[in-house]
């Protein structure tokens, strides 16, 4: 069982993630905006962050960049999610330090396998 922080502003996607994470047996919490996300990650030290790119207040790109700038958060895995799943967006997310990148809408099986890959990854 992993501790997962979902940072997603779209309620319908958050509900689907809640269903999946509950069914998989993970503990999870959600933030609907990017404001305060890095502080929350420092505070809770989740095993995985499911991070939307387009958020109110602060972009997911800024959040992943700030997380990677903090050496004490090196073991936190970040899976970015975006409706703009272009190669350029993917490259940018990975270059800023995301561990994975998934385009929305995603198949639950695709998300499940990507989460499993990241949670098995050694620090």
TrEMBL record:
Keywords: Phosphoprotein. InterPro entries: Bact_response_regulator, Sig_transdc_resp-reg_receiver. Residues 3-119 form the Response regulatory domain. SMART domains: REC. It holds the Pfam family Response_reg. It comes from the Bacteria. The modification 4-aspartylphosphate is found at residue 52. PANTHER family: RESPONSE REGULATORY DOMAIN-CONTAINING PROTEIN (PTHR44591:SF3), STRESS RESPONSE REGULATOR PROTEIN 1 (PTHR44591). This is Response regulator. It comes from Paracoccus marinaquae.
């Amino acid at each position: 069982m992993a501790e997962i922080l979902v940072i997603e502003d779209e309620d319908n996607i958050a509900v689907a993630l809640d269903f999946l994470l509950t069914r998989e047996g993970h503990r999870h919490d959600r933030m609907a905006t990017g404001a305060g996300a890095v502080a929350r990650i420092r505070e809770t030290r989740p095993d995985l962050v499911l991070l939307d790119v387009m958020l109110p207040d602060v972009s997911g790109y800024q959040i992943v960049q700030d997380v990677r700038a903090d050496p004490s958060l090196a073991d936190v895995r970040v899976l970015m999610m975006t409706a703009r799943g272009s190669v350029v967006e993917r490259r940018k997310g990975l270059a800023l330090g995301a561990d994975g990148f998934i385009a929305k809408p995603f198949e639950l099986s695709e998300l499940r396998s990507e989460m499993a890959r990241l949670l098995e990854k050694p620090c």
